[in-house]
Amino acid sequence: MEGSDRNASPTPSNAEIMHDASGVLHAHFLTVTEALKLIGAEFDGLHKERLQEFCENVEMATGLVKPEERELFDKLILTKITKNARSKLLVRADIETWNDIKGALHEYYSERRTVDFYACQLFAARQGKNESIARWAHRVDRMGTELRNAMVQGEPLVAREYQIRAVRKLVKASFVQGIRDERIQSLIKSRDAQTLEQAVNIATEEETAIVSAQAK
Fold it and tell me: Contact at 8 Å (CB) between 109 and 45?
């Protein structure tokens, strides 16, 4: 009947969050095709520094696929791996799941240096004699990224979040202690900079003021 059709409740689309009769919230899963698109750029093995981001994207996408479809999704992940990296995986007989793929990729493309190496490199670094605050900050940030990547490799997401926060604090502390001018160090500490960005802004302002004063 036309009247009953007009009054019927609309059927929720696939993109909507669903509730059952008891009001329990149900997570919305993506199709395998949609999840593959979330991975983004392919990994070809030519740029090793992109491996960590690729793996993080795959794991995020995997968490949005229905459990019963993850075996299929694992197989299709190979379509996002190309060129040299794909060639290396195709000759392996032990590749069945995403964990197998991830382990092989790290085996071939991860840096062999340890967390201790990157931590010592960061702690020992100092601003160069003719190095500006901006360049020093960029160098410290890069070393922090290397340390973070080494620490979170293979760790569960919860542990990664803790480690990333810890690395941010270490990077900020290393930036401050490595500045050549002790006046700038003291100024940053007195203003209680909480992040690397805040510390860099304070240091840059003071560096500019010092250069201006010297030019007069």
Answer: yes
Both 119 and 199 in one domain: the answer is: yes
What is the DSSP secondary structure assignment for residue 43, as one 8-state letter?
Answer: B
**102 and 124 in contact (C-beta within 8 Å)?**
no
pTM: 0.50
Domain extent at residue 93: 32-109
- Does 23 map to a domain? no
Judged on CB neighbours under 10 Å (0-12, 13-18, 19+), 80 is: buried
Q: Is the pLDDT of residue 159 over 90?
A: no
Round to whole Å and give the CA distance between 64 and 163.
24
User: CA-CA distance, 203 to 139, in Å (whole number)?
Assistant: 15
CA angle 10, 34, 52 (to 5 degrees): 140
Residue 74's pLDDT band (cuts 50, 70, 90): very high
Residues 104 and 150 in one domain: no
